[in-house]
Amino acid sequence: MVNSLYQWIMTGVIALLHPFYVSVIEIQHNAKDNNIDISVRIFTEDLETTLKKINTKIDLIHPIDQSLNNQLINNYITKKLQIKIDGKIYPLHYVGYELQQESIWSYFDIPNISALKKIEVDCSVLYDFETNQINIIHVKEKGIEKSYKLDYPKTNASFDF
């Protein structure tokens, strides 16, 4: 009994000391506007560290050059996130980003999508940062929400509605 309790305590301590690498991608079909709304939530420190490999001048918390931040975030995510709807790959249109507590929310859309039957997501966001990265994908269509968890190195998820 004591040994079992000790194992649980040690597992909890290790879990607290080990960082958690996760991002969340939310994809929602907006039937009223005929578009797909996409939001990507990434921990600020992780995204900034990754983007500094491209440009050391980036500062997401205290931006010196907002247009540079927008450009770097847009370029990075559109290279790491690809969406195929009903067999066709669509480019993501960058809307912007915002800082919310310890996370960056970046927003994209895909216009002129009247219906969503099948969506395939290829996502390698932050895989170049951390091999323990997890990307959680939520897709919502007509009130139905489906989710999938991508553990490194897996990059593909598919949803049928």
Structure description:
By secondary structure, the protein is α+β, with helices and mostly antiparallel strands. It has one domain. The strands form two sheets. The protein has a six-stranded mixed beta sheet with strand order 5-6-2-1-8-9. β1 and β2 form a beta hairpin. It is globular. The chain starts with a helix and ends with a strand. About 4% of the residues have low confidence.
Instruction: Output the helix-strand order.
Output: HEEHHEEEEEEEE
N- to C-terminal separation?
A: 48 Å
Round the mean pLDDT to the nearest integer and report it.
90
Into which percent range does the helicity of residues fall?
10-25%
Biggest sheet details: 6 strands, mixed
What share of the residues does DSSP label as strand, in percent?
35-45%
| Structural class by SSE content | alpha+beta
* Low-pLDDT segments, ≥5 res: 10-15
Principal-axes geometry comes out as: globular
Q: How much is the radius of gyration in Å?
A: 18 Å
Task: Name a few traits of the molecule.
25% helix; 161 residues; alpha+beta; 4-stranded antiparallel β-sheet; single chain; 3 helices
How is this fold's topology laid out?
Elements: H1 2-17, E1 22-30, E2 35-43, H2 44-52, H3 66-80, E3 81-85, E4 88-90, E5 93-100, E6 103-111, E7 118-123, E8 134-141, E9 144-151, E10 156-160
Parallel strand pairs: 1-8
Antiparallel strand pairs: 1-2, 2-6, 3-4, 3-7, 5-6, 7-10, 8-9
In brief, what are we looking at here?
With 161 residues, the protein is α+β, with helices and mostly antiparallel strands. Helix content is 25%, strand content 43%.
